[in-house]
Design a protein that fits this description.
five-stranded mixed β-sheet, binds adenosine monophosphate
Length: 736
């Protein structure tokens, strides 16, 4: 009888991630030869074949080189030697061709292009973002602090647009109850949630300098670099490294430490030896009040603020389920080695939804609205069998049980719509299901919205069915019952299982182990309890396995009573399940920057100009106003237009600098401004669209309404082009 699973604490950001480890050890698992966790083509077989082919060709080169050496040593005839050298040259060419083919395949399996071109692309994006103050390393004049960033004016505007759309798309659409809770959180709350004990990452230290590194990152970097740079890697070794990458999140401290040792991984900066991995809690600790006696933490997520308010929110909602609460706010995580710019930082904005639902009915009234959506999904099965992510119809994924329930499916669909409407490229967005050991043991199902950028696939939104774990944990710790009720129309007679351990007898028999035996008896499910009851009645005793003790004990008849009692119930009392979509706003924004960025040649062809093709929804400024030349009459018109834009609620900027109009267009494109108004007469103006660079002529009194139509999304640019005369750009974009 298995009452308590053997529990293992995982290095995973969600606390309470107690993984049930049965006979699975990620590294002892021998991958099938096709094992591969990548979503891109070409499939790994092709890469393996190329590796094999390169190894064969290299071996042929070595053999031929040896033959040439022998011929020379023997003083062979000139013609024989020439022929052998020619053949060696040909073989070397073949090997070089195979190497470059393999390099291309490896680059393709790591995303678009080689790592060098990805880095060059990233550099262009980041340079533009920093130069135009989208974001700034915090405390820059004091040389900054790793993992802390400020948003500058356009970054702030983008962020506030993303959050406004989030509120509209989720909070407004679903009538969610928005709350705003403090960042400083007393210890007891985070003790109950499991963060104090388990919100850890595994860290290693440079044994000489004490510099800290995240253990899994070092292993990940090693495997990736080896796979990308070592073209002579045998296929089996490549498969092994890929397997390590796939199960990285599942590795225990011991397994990680063993792998670091096996691969001879040392401190990246000094090459000094590393310590064994050990857990490091990511929360920033503080104390509340002057006494120093009341410990607290900066919250690592916003969710707990919602859970502890469940009782009041449920009441506010008329004691009805389902309902969702939402919160936007700062989260703090003392990341061991922050990197990848805005993607891994120590303070960031989270937007979280906790949707409370009856565990017996996870249907969703609006599910039909998203059921027909089709997008890239990466179910567990496909990951474990080395297949690629594939386009699936959401409705079918829910119907076949790939996605656990309708509400979870509903949120996956809504997240897809949210991200793509923001401007995330749908072909670089996938929903990846957590692997069994990656998921908390209590969770019913989890999917991450991952966006591909120059750093690879990045988890930007986690969507988890966390069952009743959080509310139960806070009920237990606070003593306040966080439950919901379902009133029956008629009282119902129910049979209740009653297990009463006789603590005195158990104490006498098991002494210090009494508590664990009592807990194990109380945790029996109905079938197990009835089995125990039958055995006790027929034999007077039963052998009972207590997993937490790791052994079987003998329970006699006087140690426990098991019975079933009938009683009338007027209502059902239950702990709701929680479905939690959790959005890392900074990660979404960074990916959006990359997906929106492109470069185009200037008109003269002598310069590459940067453009962010933000949808109007997120663009930091909706339009710019340029008097064509510095003349008072044009400036007056520009001011008039600015007034009408303000009255229409359109964010805009006037640029009256004397620089050429082409340069001013380039500046506004670099900020991702969708429309630019050029004042070149006192009666009408031109409106230019950023990506097509097409222009139309519009009278001055209509200009604000045209801009509003387009930027509010009520008309497309093509619609207004149809209604207004085109303007020839002759000379206007001279420098572009
Ligand atoms: P988690 O609670 O760990 O599932 O995180 C929720 C979301 O927060 C993730 O999906 C990420 O988008 C985001 N996130 C987590 N850690 C960080 C970090 N250090 N920096 C920025 N965003 C983060």
């Amino acid at each position: 009888m298995r009452l308590h699973p053997l529990l293992k604490i995982s290095r995973n950001h969600h606390p309470g991630v107690l993984l049930i480890l049965r006979h699975y050890s990620p590294l002892s698992y021998t991958p099938p030869h096709f094992f591969h966790v990548s979503t891109r083509n070409p499939p790994r077989m092709a890469e393996d074949e190329l590796r094999q082919s390169l190894a064969n060709k290299q071996a042929a080169v070595d053999a031929q080189a040896a033959a040439v050496r022998d011929l020379k040593a023997q003083g062979a005839a000139g013609s024989d030697l020439d022929a052998a050298v020619e053949s060696l040259k040909a073989l070397k060419l073949e090997a070089a061709a195979a190497a470059s083919q393999l390099q291309a395949a490896v680059a393709a399996s790591n995303g678009d292009g080689s790592s060098a071109s990805r880095e060059a692309f990233r550099q262009s994006v980041v340079n533009t973002l920093e130069r135009r103050l989208f974001y700034i390393p915090s405390f820059k004049i004091y040389r900054g602090v790793a993992g802390l960033y400020d948003y500058g004016p356009p970054g702030c505007a983008v962020k506030s647009n993303v959050l406004a759309f989030w509120r509209q798309h989720f909070v407004l659409e679903e009538n969610m109850l928005e709350v705003d809770c403090p960042c400083v959180t007393p210890e007891v709350v985070l003790k109950a949630s499991g963060h104090v004990d388990k919100f850890t990452d595994l860290m290693v230290k440079d044994e000489k300098t004490g510099t800290c590194y995240r253990a899994d990152h070092l292993l990940k970097d090693f495997c990736k670099e080896k796979l990308e740079k070592d073209l002579t890697l045998p296929a089996e070794k490549a498969a092994e490294l890929k397997h390590v990458l796939a199960v990285l999140d599942d590795l225990s401290a011991e397994e990680l430490g063993a792998k670091l040792k096996e691969y001879g991984i040392t401190a990246p900066d000094t090459k000094n030896p590393l310590s064994d991995p050990y857990p490091f809690n990511l929360m920033f600790q503080t104390s509340i009040g002057p006494s120093g006696l009341s410990p607290g933490y900066m919250r690592p997520e916003t969710a707990q603020g919602i859970f502890v308010n469940f009782k009041d929110l449920y009441y506010y909602n008329g004691n009805k389920l389902p309902f969702a609460a939402a919160q936007i706010g700062q989260a703090f995580r003392n990341e061991i080695s922050p990197r990848q710019g805005l993607l891994r930082v120590r303070e960031f904005t989270l937007a979280e939804i906790e949707h409370f639902v009856d565990p017996d009915d996870k249907s969703h009234p609006k599910y039909k609205e998203v059921a027909d959506l089709e997008f890239l999904m990466f179910p567990r099965e496909e990951q474990l069998t080395g297949q690629a992510a594939k386009k699936l119809c959401l409705g079918e994924a829910v119907f076949t049980g790939t996605v656990n329930n309708q509400t979870l499916g509903f949120f996956i669909g809504r997240v897809y719509l949210f991200l793509t409407r923001l401007g995330i490229d749908k072909d670089r967005l996938r929903f990846r299901q957590h692997l069994p050991n990656e998921m908390a043991h209590y969770a019913a199902d989890c999917w991450d919205a991952e966006i591909e950028c120059s750093y690879g696939w990045i988890e930007c939104v986690g969507i988890a069915d966390r069952s009743a774990y959080d509310l139960r944990a806070h009920t237990e710790k606070s003593g306040v019952s966080l439950v919901a009720h379902e009133k029956y129309a008629e009282p119902r007679e129910v049979e209740q299982l009653v297990i009463v351990p006789a603590k005195k007898e158990l104490g006498l028999a098991f002494k210090g182990n009494q508590k664990m035996v009592v807990e194990a008896l109380e945790a029996m499910n109905e079938a197990e309890a009835m089995e125990v009851k039958t055995a006790l009645e027929s034999q007077g005793q039963v052998e009972f396995n207590v997993c937490t003790l790791g052994k079987t004990v003998t329970i006699t008849k006087n140690m426990v009573s098991v019975s079933k009692q009938k009683k009338k119930e007027h209502q059902r009392v239950f702990t709701p399940s929680v479905i939690e979509p959790s959005f890392g706003i900074g990660r979404i924004i960074y990916c959006l920057f990359e997906h929106s960025f492109y470069m185009r040649a200037s008109k003269a062809g002598d310069e590459q100009l940067n453009v962010f093709r933000f949808p109007s929804l997120v663009a930091p400024i909706k339009c710019t106003v340029f008097p064509l030349v510095q003349q008072q009459q044009y400036e007056e018109v520009a001011k008039l237009i600015s007034k009408s834009l303000t009255a229409a609620g359109i964010s805009h900027k006037i640029d009256i600098t004397g620089t050429s109009i082409g340069k001013r267009y380039a500046r506004t494109d670099e900020l991702g401004v969708p429309l630019a108004i050029t004042v070149d007469s006192t009666t009408s103006v031109t409106i230019r669209e950023r990506d097509s660079k097409d222009q139309i002529r519009v009278s001055i009194n209509e200009v604000a309404s045209v801009v509003k139509e387009v930027t509010d999304g009520h008309s497309t640019w093509a619609d207004v082009q149809w209604n207004y005369p085109a303007h020839s750009a002759a000379g206007g974009e001279g420098t572009q």
